[in-house]
Design brief:
The protein has 340 residues and is an alpha+beta fold. It has helices at residues 15-23, 25-28, 53-60, 74-82, 98-101, 124-130, 166-189, 230-238, 317-326, and strands at 3-9, 30-36, 41-43, 48-50, 65-66, 87-91, 108-112, 135-142, 152-159, 244-251, 258-273, 284-288, 292-296, 300-309, 314-316, 333-336. A seven-stranded mixed β-sheet has the order 5-2-1-6-7-8-9. The chain has a six-stranded antiparallel barrel with strand order 10-11-14-13-12-16.
Amino acid sequence: MKKNILFFGTPDFAIDSLRSIYIHQYKLNYELKGVVTVADRISGRGQKKNQSAIKKEAKKLNLKIYEPDSLIDPIFIEELQKLDLDLSIVVAFKKIPKIIYQIPKLGTINLHASILPEYRGAAPINWAIINGEKQTGLTTFFINEKIDTGDIIMQKEVSINIEDHVIDLYKLLKEESFKFIKNTIQCVIQNSFKLKKQKNYKKNILKIAPKITKDLLKLNIDSFNKKPLIKMYNYIRGMSNYGVKIKIILIKSHTKEEFKKNIIVKRVSNFTDNIENNEIGEIKMNIENKNQIIVTNGCSSFNIENLKLENGKEISAKEFYNGFIKEKEVLNQIIFNNTI
């Protein structure tokens, strides 16, 4: 008998999963009954309505769209109960209340962008890079009352390269989710899986992935001084979808006049250890070869590839040199400014 499936999702990350569920309906003998997403949001100067990425995709696929103001709205709950659901799939959506996730006969599955139980929370991609992980992945599990703690159905590991930024890992995991969600649905429908329970670990044992707040996007150089430079490099990579604010002081070469700037670092590269020197010194930022911004602590270094000034567009290191170093006749050494 054909199964009935409902999809919950909001951002772009969930699109590949939705497409996969839509495409594999006939092959896996189920029907996608619709999509639940957030209601349109009004924003911007023009007060325009913004649709979620999943709503836009669902429209293209001619799917029924549910946009409840509240997930515990009795009318919405009644609508779902009438669908005779066998399974619900959740990808990048808000917390689902028990009254909703218990409706499908087989349960409600969540796809999470980490190898659980590590990196439970809202920003697993960011924190995996910040912590210098070499591997992460995807996990599907049955939702329960606690966030990201349900019984695991399947897991898929992927490698994190030292040059990967959030957008790179995001794209990789998004692409991997296409096949991964299909395999998960197939094994659940066919009852060909073995659940793996998540252990109840003590606090501070597991690495977590809390929401990224504005305060985390301000980089205080003192918190990285006298530490391996790889920590600063990883932190910038892990916050790169937002950009990390660094306060700097530029000095004019002739007058020695100082002027302060806030730069938002968006992309770094070429992390290198100096095998001839292992003594960690103060972190410095220099301009080299007219197109390279080098951050170094004496024994390690990396390049700043892309950055932006506050309220400005993203530019390359070369464009920064031409516009703010060469044009303003500034010294090649940039001073970090940690004053508030």
